[in-house]
């Protein structure tokens, strides 16, 4: 293992020539050459970081979005393709650039806490597409207020794609385009949010490789530290199967081992289950399509852990996902209740139909004869709620299944 073999040896000398096999300062000078400077202090000294530094109360988290997104963190937003994360990120940029205002701005389930510049680099949307989306959510007066606050760069209209990370001779390197981008963000100043959408079109590397993810996030973290901005990148989830809950959503992110572990904050969007869509459709009184009901949550944060699950409903006119968590919760709760007055009305209706020799049935497959259908149409409760109350009333003896001698069929009567 001679020093100048040029075969990648760690030390440019023979360790057997060292006392105890440990490199001396002279040996280290051979390794580092001109970079070695005995006057250089180490980056830290252990004794400088004793408990005297931690007396008193820690500074509170500086939020960009209260209880959701801290300021100045590298993060990821992931979903299946076509759900609407790009539009949601555009809307987030608008809200950050607009700031709290007189009435407050909310996004991702929390309040925007400050006003700063926001910029979004999109590799898949053209200038015309971005312009149309802005027209759907902003009027001319709102656009005017965002001058010098909001910057949206459609790469298809700037000459094509841009590569921020590439691989060269087995090593992952950030490109000159990345460093130019960082310089501009820092030079602009007062930037609170930077969005890169999507990640995979701007990296010429396999992001499942931990080394690639580590290189990328290290440089993003440096940008956040130097600019004070949150830098969020958009990414995809794996296809296949229903997702239930935040932890399953996190595991569904492509390359989740390296990508998720490498950043400080991750927000996931995933489709509601078929049962959830059915319940919501019945509660709202119209059919909610497969891509119209979406859940979202912080699935990783070094500051808050896992966040509250939010529910988004796609706006019919703009196509934007809107946070309707509280509204839907109230709608579904209301659609799962039967008041005493409504209960009496149901029993009166059962008695009326029994006397007319057209008795109701307790079974949903009976269609027009199912008493639950009357409840759904009359009180706007869900089918599941109607089934549950009918079962409950039969168990309690308020409703009885009996043979109607005139109609010559089984039916419901009041017990």
Q: In the CATH hierarchy, what is the class of the largest domain?
A: Alpha Beta
Helix residue percentage: 25-40%
Count structural domains.
3
- Derived structural class: alpha/beta
Number of helices: 13
| Neighbour order of strands in the largest sheet | 7-6-10-12-3-13-14-15-16
Report the count of strand segments.
18
Largest sheet: 9 strands, mixed
What's the overall geometry?
elongated
* CATH fourth-tier homologous superfamily of the largest domain: P-loop containing nucleotide triphosphate hydrolases
Radius of gyration: 31 Å
The CATH architecture designation of the largest domain is: 3-Layer(aba) Sandwich
Q: What is the residue-mean pLDDT, rounded to a whole number? A: 87
Provide structural commentary.
- With 415 residues, this protein is an alpha/beta fold.
- The protein has three domains: 1-58, no CATH class; 63-326, P-loop containing nucleotide triphosphate hydrolases (Rossmann fold, 3-Layer(aba) Sandwich), CATH 3.40.50; 340-414.
- Helix content is 34%, strand content 21%.
- The chain contains 13 helices and 18 strands.
- The protein has helices at 25-32, 85-98, 127-137, 140-145, 176-188, 210-227, 246-251, 256-262, 274-284, 325-334, 340-355, 371-379, 383-395; strands at 63-65, 69-70, 74-79, 106-107, 110-111, 117-122, 150-154, 165-168, 171-174, 191-197, 203-204, 230-236, 265-271, 293-301, 310-314, 321-323, 399-404, 409-414.
- A nine-stranded mixed β-sheet has the order 7-6-10-12-3-13-14-15-16, with helices on both faces. Strands 9-8-11 form a three-stranded mixed β-sheet. Strands 1-2 form a two-stranded antiparallel sheet.
- Helix 6 runs parallel beside helix 8 (256-262), helix 9 packs across helix 10 and helix 12 (371-379) packs across helix 13 (383-395).
- The longest helix is centred in the middle third of the chain and has 18 residues, at 210-227.
- The protein starts with 24 loop residues before the first helix and ends with a strand.
- Mean pLDDT is 87; it is low at 1-13.
């Amino acid at each position: 293992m001679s020093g100048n073999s040029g075969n990648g040896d760690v030390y440019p000398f023979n360790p057997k020539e060292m006392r105890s096999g440990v490199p001396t300062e002279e040996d280290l000078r051979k390794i580092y050459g001109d970079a070695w400077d005995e006057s250089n202090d180490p980056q830290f000294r252990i004794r400088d970081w004793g408990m005297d530094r931690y007396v008193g109360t820690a500074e509170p988290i500086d939020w960009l979005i209260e209880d959701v997104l801290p300021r100045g963190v590298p993060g990821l937003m992931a979903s299946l393709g076509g759900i609407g994360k790009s539009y949601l990120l555009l809307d987030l940029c608008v809200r950050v650039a607009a700031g709290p205002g007189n009435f407050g701005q909310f996004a991702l389930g929390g309040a925007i806490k400050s006003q700063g510049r926001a910029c979004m680099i999109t590799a898949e949307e053209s200038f015309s597409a971005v312009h149309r989306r802005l027209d759907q959510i902003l009027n001319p007066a709102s656009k005017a207020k965002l001058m010098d606050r909001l910057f949206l760069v459609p790469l298809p209209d700037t000459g094509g794609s841009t590569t921020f990370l590439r691989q060269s001779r087995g090593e992952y390197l950030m490109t000159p385009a990345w460093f130019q981008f960082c310089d501009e963000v820092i030079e602009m100043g007062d930037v609170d949010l930077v969005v890169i959408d999507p990640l995979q079109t701007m990296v010429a590397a396999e992001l499942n490789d931990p080394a690639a993810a580590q290189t990328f996030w290290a440089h993003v973290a440096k940008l956040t530290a130097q600019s004070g901005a949150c830098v969020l990148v958009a990414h995809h989830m794996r296809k296949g199967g229903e997702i239930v809950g935040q932890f399953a959503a996190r595991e569904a992110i492509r390359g989740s081992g390296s990508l998720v572990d490498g950043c400080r904050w991750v927000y996931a969007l995933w489709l509601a289950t078929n049962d959830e869509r059915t319940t919501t459709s019945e509660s709202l009184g119209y059919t909610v399509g497969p891509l119209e009901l979406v859940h979202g949550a912080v699935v990783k944060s070094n500051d808050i852990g896992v966040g509250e699950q939010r529910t988004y409903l796609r706006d019919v006119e703009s196509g934007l996902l809107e946070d309707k968590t509280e509204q839907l919760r109230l709608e579904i709760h209301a659609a799962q209740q039967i008041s005493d007055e409504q209960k009496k009305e149901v029993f009166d209706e059962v008695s009326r139909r029994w006397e007319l020799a057209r008795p109701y049935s307790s079974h949903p497959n009976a269609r027009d004869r199912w008493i639950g259908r009357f409840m759904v149409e009359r009180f706007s409760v869900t089918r599941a709620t109607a089934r549950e109350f009918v079962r409950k009333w039969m168990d309690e003896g308020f409703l009885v299944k009996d043979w109607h001698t005139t109609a010559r069929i089984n039916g419901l009567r009041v017990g």
